[in-house]
Specification:
alpha/beta, 2-enoyl-CoA Hydratase, Chain A, domain 1, lipid metabolism, Enoyl-CoA hydratase family protein, 9 strands, single chain, globular, six-stranded mixed sheet, ClpP/crotonase-like_dom_sf
């Protein structure tokens, strides 16, 4: 359980997330994920990283129960910094990152996937940001890398999901396969990258990041500032308490 990393000896390093039951990652786990991805990219024997998860879904975001069980704002601040670190690690990893998305990818999962280089998904995968239903904001920066602008706004305001098939239509998901074939699909595209001269691919990753029209790190931190504002106003606690108690969004009152 937690974050593990394995290498196949042929240039592919696989980082696996395993936090049952839904891969809601605790604060420390986000930092560990960041460190693991960055370390893999620094290893000269790694040509490409696969980021995958065990269990029911790829990622359910931050561990809200941990946040609500902690006095003060320490857990909230740690979760925000941890997410920023993990999202940045995927983006800054010195080699391309292929994400293999199974089941649900929501909240913080969108930050990981939106900053990845290649996305493969199972045919039952869905992607979304339930942030407004939790009294928070964030990862619109990354969702906007997956869908067109107006659809991003609609999904963000309504907390609806988008399917892997829809993202494949938009070109943000490279391939959609049955869940049983997901790991093989990730390995296939990772193998194509790993076979290239890693010196060239590493410079290609850096070059693409440098010409990126969006500063993903600054944009996400701006979003987080509004999340902190909602927390200071007490709004976020109302929504998180309701979710922890009932598992449902707080009704508008």
């Amino acid at each position: 359980m937690g974050i593990t990393s394995t290498s196949d000896g042929a240039g592919i390093t696989t980082v696996t997330v395993d936090y049952p039951p839904v891969n809601a990652i605790p604060s420390a786990g986000w930092f560990e994920l960041a460190d693991t991805v960055l370390a893999a990219g620094k290893d000269p024997d790694t040509h490409v990283v696969i980021l995958r998860s065990e269990g029911r879904g790829f990622n359910a975001g931050v561990d809200i129960k941990e946040m609500q069980a902690t006095e003060g704002f320490d857990a909230l601040i740690a979760a925000n910094h941890g997410c920023a670190a993990a999202f940045s690690a995927v983006y800054d990893c010195e080699v391309p990152v292929v994400v293999a998305v199974n089941g649900f990818c929501v909240g913080g999962g969108i930050g990981l996937v939106g900053n990845a280089d290649v996305i493969v998904a199972s045919d039952d995968a869905v992607f979304g940001l339930p942030e407004v239903d939790r009294g928070a904001l964030g990862a619109a920066t990354h969702l906007s890398r997956l869908v067109p602008q107006h659809l991003m706004r609609t999904l963000y305001y309504t907390a609806q999901n988008v399917t892997a098939q829809q993202l494949h239509h938009f070109g943000s998901v490279y391939k959609v396969v049955p869940r049983a074939e997901l790991d093989a699909a990730a390995l296939e595209v990772a193998g194509l990258i790993a076979a290239k001269d890693t010196r060239v691919i590493r410079r290609a990753k850096e070059a693409i990041n440098r010409i990126d029209p969006v500063d993903v790190k600054t944009a996400y931190r701006i979003e987080q500032g509004f999340t902190f504002e909602l927390n200071l106003a007490g709004v976020a606690d109302e929504h998180r308490d309701e979710f922890v108690a009932t598992g449902k969004p707080r009704a508008n009152k």
